[in-house]
């Protein structure tokens, strides 16, 4: 209650100011608000084990296996409550809704104009239930589109029957339909089609090598080059409390840009590496990655968080109040659940010196996926072509009535 009132104040004031609570919240920062936490595991006894600087992940995992283990972890989160309405379902893979001998259907989507939508989505998809889907930016590949996808540009104001359906995509925090689209794609479950940031399409052509060894001199990785004043201020105040590397333009403390190329030559993918090749591999050398959204709003959980998770690091997260509906249990440290940045910093340091507790933050990927995470991945940009084609087919494609 206190937390939600504070968050409300935070959201209304449009500020990233850290709430200054008079008393710490009685919640474990790794759990969702609704979790009945009865089984205790390593994260519940942080600070009770003797601190033990460590670098190697695999021995830490073995220790956790013998002291806690997937069985107990699974039991603890068996009744973990997430809001399943925060993520859409596909319906495509659902065998019950799909007739085996259904008629074959084909839907084509032409991606219009200049857009960041990645080229690697181009192609033909088999979507199940007899539906095939063609997706391209090329008016030759898609000469008779069933739908036009706009992003960054407003769709035509009118549509006559027989014209392609108008689709508009906006994944920014401030997402808003233009009023001229037939189908709106955003990051929220209430949009016609939801797209989460938990896919591969947001970071193509990068080195996915994950370091098995973590630094023990520097705890936290940060990289931001859009220096928004409020995000910067929060980062500055937190990072001043922990040993960190900041690689981006904002608060850079590694001697300039592109230093990850110098620090981590093992991450090079080619003879002329560029910093974003290194991003994933570079952050994997750190136990923690600071991830602060540009806006704190419901369901706006971006690649900043998923990227760190995939790099085998533990995100320290400031962003969507319902972030636990998007991530596996015990996978992140939710910064907003601490009474102060000092408390957060001290917690992070303790976890960083406790191989068993730290290993528990990786249990989600070793023991099997719990919570909404399975569907969060399923609803990513990677699967957008089939999901959009499915909806276009349902609406009747070009032959849909004027809306
Ligand atoms: C569950 O998520 C949906 C979609 O984000 C939201 O509208 C609803 O208020 C949430 N319910 C609860 C109980 O938080």
Automatic annotation (TrEMBL):
PANTHER family (alphabetical): ALPHA- 1,3 -FUCOSYLTRANSFERASE, ALPHA-(1,3)-FUCOSYLTRANSFERASE 10
Keyword Nuclease: no
InterPro entries with a match to the protein in the record: Alpha-1_3/4-FUT_pln, Glyco_tran_10_C, Glyco_trans_10, GT10-like_C_sf
Family assignment from sequence similarity: Belongs to the glycosyltransferase 10 family.
Signal sequence bounds: 1-22
Domain (Fucosyltransferase C-terminal) ranges: 217-395
Membrane-topology annotation of the record: Single-pass type II membrane protein
Identification of the protein by name: Fucosyltransferase
UniProt keywords, alphabetically: Glycosyltransferase, Golgi apparatus, Membrane, Signal, Transferase, Transmembrane
E.C. code: 2.4.1.-
Pathway: Protein modification; protein glycosylation
Matching SUPFAM superfamilies: UDP-Glycosyltransferase/glycogen phosphorylase
Intracellular or extracellular location(s): Golgi apparatus, Golgi stack membrane
Molecular function, one GO term: alpha-(1->3)-fucosyltransferase activity
GO cellular component, one term: Golgi cisterna membrane
């Amino acid at each position: 209650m206190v937390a939600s009132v504070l968050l409300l104040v935070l959201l209304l004031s449009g500020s990233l100011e850290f709430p200054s609570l008079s008393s710490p919240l009685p919640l474990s920062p790794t759990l969702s608000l609704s979790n009945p936490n009865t089984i205790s595991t390593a994260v519940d006894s942080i600070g009770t084990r003797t601190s033990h600087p460590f670098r190697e992940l695999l021995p830490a995992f073995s220790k956790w296996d013998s002291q806690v283990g997937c069985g107990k972890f699974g039991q603890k989160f068996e009744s973990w409550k997430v809001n399943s309405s925060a993520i859409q379902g596909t319906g495509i893979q659902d065998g019950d809704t799909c007739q085996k001998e259904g008629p074959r259907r084909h839907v084509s989507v032409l991606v219009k104009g200049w857009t960041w939508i990645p080229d690697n989505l181009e192609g033909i998809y088999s979507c199940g239930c007899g539906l095939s889907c063609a997706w391209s930016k090329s008016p030759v590949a898609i000469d008779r589109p069933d739908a036009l996808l706009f992003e960054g540009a407003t769709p035509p104001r009118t549509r006559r029957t027989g014209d392609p359906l108008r689709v508009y995509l906006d994944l920014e925090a401030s997402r808003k339909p233009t009023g001229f689209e037939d189908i709106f794609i955003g990051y929220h479950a209430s949009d016609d089609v939801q797209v989460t940031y938990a896919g591969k399409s947001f970071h193509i052509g990068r080195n996915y090598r994950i370091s098995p060894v973590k630094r023990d001199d520097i705890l936290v990785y940060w990289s931001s080059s859009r220096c928004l004043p409020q995000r910067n201020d929060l980062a500055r105040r937190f990072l001043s409390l922990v040993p960190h590397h900041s690689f981006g333009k904002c608060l850079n403390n590694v001697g300039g840009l592109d230093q990850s190329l110098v620090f981590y030559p093992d991450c090079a993918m080619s003879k002329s590496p560029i910093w974003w090749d290194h991003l994933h591999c570079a952050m994997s050398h750190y136990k923690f990655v600071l991830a602060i959204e540009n806006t704190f709003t419901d369901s706006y959980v971006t690649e900043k968080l998923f990227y760190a998770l995939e790099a085998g690091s533990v995100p320290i997260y400031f962003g969507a109040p319902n972030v636990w509906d998007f991530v596996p249990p015990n996978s992140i440290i939710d910064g907003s659940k601490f009474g102060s940045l000092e408390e957060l910093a001290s917690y992070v340091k303790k976890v960083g010196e406790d191989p068993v507790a730290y290993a528990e933050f990786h249990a989600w990927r070793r023991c099997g996926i719990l919570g909404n995470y399975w569907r969060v991945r399923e609803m990513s940009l990677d699967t957008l072509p089939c999901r959009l084609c499915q909806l276009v087919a349902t609406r009747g494609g070009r032959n849909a009535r004027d809306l």
